[in-house]
Design brief:
The structure is a single chain. Residues 1-64 and 67-79 have low confidence and may be disordered. The protein has 3 domains: 3-79, no CATH class; 84-205, NAD(P)-binding Rossmann-like Domain (Rossmann fold), CATH 3.40.50.720; 206-368 and 384-416, Dihydrodipicolinate Reductase, domain 2, CATH 3.30.360. Strand 16 and strand 17 (340-343) form a beta hairpin. By secondary structure, the protein is α/β, with parallel strands linked by helices. Strands 19-18-17-16-12-15-14-13-20 form a 9-stranded mixed sheet. Helix content is 32%, strand content 24%.
């Protein structure tokens, strides 16, 4: 929210109770509704944020009259309008994320397209959702509602059908990683997005890791380690069966057509995504890969381990994706000419220069905690995704890398892009 007071433009305005410093505007809508009922019995203060940090010592405090509060409260609510989203598919376990975001008042689900009645009943009961928002197909849903964006939680091979349904209606789309199972499908999706001028984005858990964002900033803006020479990304876990993924998720996740492969697709996409970003949107000149089938008794139809090397003119990337790790891992190492950075997870970042000592680097929280506030800013025109981690441009390269990796593993040869 912006106001102009005493000739100064304040870009962040926060309302808070005297005994509760959490900002009213920043709370979920459910809490805002409760606040409305209790205002008469509590003193409300205006805190004007003067710096880029959120420490209270950086705020100027003003007690509000009821009239001033009404102005600020309703202006703040208009500014923080929630996204109204449609959901395409329920057979991806990540759909629990958007269901919880809806439950917590961070977003509003106005439609769900799912043909499987058993899945509909499962999520309707678990999240106490009304019958009126469920439809048996995406076309039926879009005939009744016009969401701000449609989020795809279905098999990767079905992402194309989501874009085919939404793009002609001018509805933006975000799918779960990766964008597509083949370059052919990815190119078709991109063509539709460009023809109908919609945003087509891809959601990765690791996009919202503050450590990854800081590695990028330290490397590119801060020149903390010099030119990039090598990148190593580990992603994976013990295996989707071993960690208890749902049967509906496993049905397509372990299907060579619906998922395009096993671990090479499921976790290889993370490294390809991060490396394309770290190289500022540059595609590699060649890809080599070794793909293993270590547990054929558990995963008879798809691979469960992949090692992919991506070659750039002056750098090399090593993507290690597996359903055979002894624990879950999502990390990134970047070796530069003069130093090294290691994002161990979303919260811990280490640096090493010309000594044997590793230093813990204080991590600045990333401005977006997940895909919903990011999407809201895109749709409001506040940001324009060009080679960020969710962008179409980045993810077209990701699919090319994955397809080349599978071809290299099949032939035993390097694939030149």
């Amino acid at each position: 929210m912006c106001i102009n007071g005493a000739g100064i433009l304040y870009e962040n305005v926060h309302l808070t109770y005297e005994n509760d410093r959490r900002c009213i505007f920043c709370r979920p809508a459910v809490q805002i509704a409760n606040i409305k009922l209790s205002l008469s019995s509590q003193t409300v203060y205006l805190y004007i944020h003067l710096t880029n940090t959120l420490h209270m010592k950086n705020f100027v405090c003003h007690k509000l009259t009821p009239a001033l509060f009404a102005i600020f409260f309703f202006a703040g609510n208009m500014h923080a309008q929630l996204l109204r989203v449609g959901v395409a598919g329920l057979n991806h376990d990540h759909v629990n994320n958007i269901m919880n975001q809806n439950k917590n008042g961070e977003v509003i689900i106005i439609g769900v397209a799912e043909p499987d009645a058993q899945l509909v009943q499962k999520y309707k009961k678990r999240f106490n959702l009304p019958d009126s928002i469920f439809f048996t197909s995406l076309d039926a849903m879009l005939a009744h509602i016009k969401p701000d964006v449609v989020l795809g939680y279905n098999a990767i091979a079905d992402h194309l059908s989501v874009v085919e349904a939404c793009a002609p209606k001018g509805i933006p789309v975000m799918v779960e990683k990766p964008l597509a199972t083949t370059v052919k499908d990815a190119d078709r999706m991109a063509a539709l997005a460009r023809q109908y001028h919609i945003q087509l984005l891809v959601n990765y858990e690791t996009t919202w890791y503050s450590t990854n964002q800081q590695v990028y900033n330290m490397t590119h803006a801060g020149n903390a380690i010099g030119d990039i020479r090598k990148m190593v990304v580990h992603d994976g876990h013990q295996g989707p069966v071993e960690i208890g993924c749902s049967p509906d998720f496993l049905k397509w996740l372990t299907d060579p057509v619906k998922n395009g492969g096993g671990a090479v697709m499921d976790f290889g996409c993370y490294g390809a995504n991060l490396m394309t970003w770290m190289m500022n949107g540059q595609a590699p000149i060649a890809v080599q890969a070794v793909i293993k089938h270590i547990k054929p008794d558990v995963y008879p139809r798809v691979d469960d381990d992949a090692t992919i090397m991506v070659e750039y003119p002056n750098a090399t990337g090593l993507i290690e994706a597996s359903w055979n790790w002894p624990y879950g891992i999502k990390d990134m190492e970047v070796f530069g000419k003069t130093g090294y950075l290691h994002a161990l997870n979303g919260n811990v970042l280490q640096q090493r220069k010309d000594t044997g000592t590793y230093f813990n680097v204080p991590v600045t929280p990333y401005m977006y905690k997940d895909n919903i506030p990011y999407l809201a800013d895109i749709l409001m025109g506040k940001i324009h995704p060009v080679n960020d981690l969710n962008s179409l441009e980045n993810n077209l390269i990701v699919v090319r890398i994955l397809e080349a990796a599978k071809e290299s593993a099949r032939t035993g040869k390097k694939v030149v892009l």
